[in-house]
Design goal:
five-stranded antiparallel β-sheet, 20% strand, alpha+beta, three-stranded antiparallel β-sheet, elongated
């Protein structure tokens, strides 16, 4: 119970999504179910009901936004626990209930009902209103977090390993097709649904191997080993780059080999390549 709260409860994007969902739910609930707990006993016309309910939704939403902003700020300074988060939800419910009860009491003229009567009824209505969006949001974001964690596990599992100095290339069916030393790998070139892997063989000659895969897959799989995308058709082994040279056609990467080898850098990847080699 004292473990740190899930990340999805403190991400700005998820907080905004939660607040938006609560707002839509509150509007739908108010104008379909038409609760009148705080304004019960008053005589009002339809346009007055819209005004009262809109004001109550706006007031409650402002309080909720303030609460989540405060919680986000506190958690940013020091990671909070799940237990604290549960207490905070109760605090939110009470704070919203007090605000709406004060509004209901203020429009109750003459004061035929006391605040003590309005508050418990309003609290029950607030809990009933917010319980479902809170529960749905928690389940949804929890599922999103589990999917993210699973992807991270799979990514880690599929991360390339260097066994005995060898890098292993798998095809799209995860079948091993080629193993070579990282230091012998030069670059990878796209060829539709295939890629050509260029490397230096044991005779010191330039060789290539055709692999059924995509350049994007190669880039994502071997990025941690220093392979960088520099062109729509090329991924280069950064450890083999000896010189960055500017030509009329654009930037060119020269590879440190006995065989003349130059790889173009397209405008799309120019800033990424420059940042990589200058950092």
């Amino acid at each position: 119970m004292d473990k740190t709260i899930p990340k999805f409860m403190t991400h700005k994007r998820d907080i905004f999504r939660f607040l938006f969902f609560v707002l839509i739910w509150a509007i739908a609930f108010a104008f379909v179910y038409r609760p009148n707990v705080a304004i019960r006993g008053l005589e009002y016309k339809e346009h007055q009901y819209v005004y009262y309910i809109s004001t109550m939704i706006g007031l409650g939403y402002i309080i909720l936004c303030f609460s989540r902003w405060l919680f986000y700020t506190l958690n940013k300074k020091r990671p909070l626990s799940v237990k604290f988060f549960y207490f905070w939800i109760v605090f939110e419910f009470i704070l919203i209930s007090i605000g709406l009860s004060c509004f209901g009491w203020s429009i109750n003229v003459p004061n035929t009902r006391s605040f003590a009567i309005i508050f418990p009824r309003t609290t029950l209505a607030v809990v009933s209103l917010l319980f479902i969006p809170y529960l749905i949001s928690w389940l949804y974001f929890s599922l999103e977090e589990k999917k993210f964690q699973l992807n991270e596990i799979l990514k880690h599992k599929n991360r390339p390993r260097i066994d005995d100095g060898l890098v292993h290339f798998l095809d799209e069916k995860k079948v091993l097709r080629l193993s070579l030393r990282l230091d012998d790998l030069l670059y990878v070139q796209s060829a539709d649904n295939y890629v050509y892997i260029y490397y230096i063989n044991n005779k010191g000659e330039l060789a290539k191997f055709l692999l059924r895969s995509t350049l994007k897959s190669i880039e994502e799989t071997f990025e941690s080993l220093g392979l960088i995308r520099c062109h729509r058709f090329y991924v280069v082994n950064s450890k083999k780059v000896s010189l960055l040279r500017k030509t009329k056609e654009g930037l060119v990467l020269e590879l440190a080999t006995d065989i003349a080898c130059e790889i173009p850098v397209s405008k799309t990847y120019l800033s990424k390549v420059a940042e990589f080699f200058t950092s």
